[in-house]
Amino acid sequence: MTSPLMFFRAVPVALIRLLLLVVIREAGEHVYDASARLIDQYDFVVVGGGSAGCAVATRLAEIGKWKVLLLEAGGTPPPESHVPGLHQLLLLGDHDWKYYSAPHKNIFFGFTGNRTPYPRGRVIGGSSVINSMFYLRGHRNDYDNWEALGNPGWGFKDVFPYFLKMEDYRGKITKKNAHLHGFGGPLTVENKKWRTPIVQGWLKAGKLFGYNTVDPSDPNLIGFSVVDYTTRNSMRWSTAEAYVKPSTFRSNLHVVLNAHVTQILFNEKKRAVGVKFLHKGKVKSVHARREVILSAGAINSPQILMLSGVGPADQLDRHGIPLVANVPGVGRNLMDHAYLNGISWTTRNGSSFNVLDTARPEVLKEYIHRRDGLLTTAVSIEAYAYPLAEVGDPNWPEVQVTFLPFTVGNDFGILSSHILGFRKDLYHQYFVNLGGREGFSITPFLARPKSRGSITLRSADPFDPPVIDLNYFDHPDDMAAFIRGKGYKGRKCEW
What we know:
A six-stranded mixed beta sheet has the order 11-2-1-14-13-12. By secondary structure, it is of the alpha/beta class. 23% of the residues lie in helices and 20% in strands.
């Protein structure tokens, strides 16, 4: 029997794809794949065509004498990925790796099996094709701390020029923010075009607590702000659009899609000289004269290394993988931002929106003809708050508090409970009465976790998903900082 969720995803998504292909020229499938021109050896082989890999490969290909190969496990972005308001249809879909965390210890009992979904884009452009498109650089202290840990060149003063170089800012320019943005770069950034009335209340609340409204690209992030998006003309602007598509004319850049890399090849001196990958049912190999660049993300990069014999010797031995190099740190030191979801309030009609309104014909018509309205915005976070820290440097926030202009129960659980991974009984106990009612949610995120997780192999099978142990709140300071997140001294924010 087909579940309501499967019906909601399959039938409408197929219709939406057909409609978008007919009426939105940009939603048409671009020919990225150059597998017919694949050769045996390149100067550089880039593994992973995601947010970073697309930029790396195309920048290298600007040197005309270098031959560059970009291998991506997924295919081309689907038509609905171009429309910001449809991004939730992509999560746990065909262009997502559909990863789940390992069961959490002592937390997240409201999630099925104590596991949380861990979306990762399996498509050219990677997670920049399925995410909520937020453009957020982080706090300057994050970079300066990396430099202080022994990484010269990673201080904010060093990386800031590159942020400017890659950006094409098309938002509102003022005397206060002009110096924060770049213009004419490949990655387009826009202000949120369509806003709910209630988000103004969020910004006003910040002012009542003594916080200014700030540009989300301000490196000294203290205050409240509305999100900026990586969109162009209200359409998603992924790294596939920004970097790869304009570079496919280059004869020295080959992109191969649906190429699942299974192993890095090493010579007798333990130097990476090529890769093996599965493509169209066949195992293929290519070699690199200069470098193999592993850019498969925080989850798949360590998995590929370990499958190739580089990692903790005991783990590789357990799975029968021949050892190339005993590197215990591979797969360790995983850092992620713990969060709390589901804190919701209802509001009067007309102040926020109903998630299911994204499927209304008039909403789709407004987007198609005017690139305006609800579908120009992700069904996700609308604004942030960065409160002063109570411990340590007060100007380096311990938490990021996010504002969502809807509740978890708003869509009757058709998509939200599945995407978030909530237990059905918990959803019906706490959220079912919010169905169809307007409201908002506040979700705190831990900005600087001290807990460390890990990526380990489930087996020696490269098609087996790795074990993603997020290890949230393992360090006692994390829970203390999370609780402190309501504010600081005279400017407490009692969420």
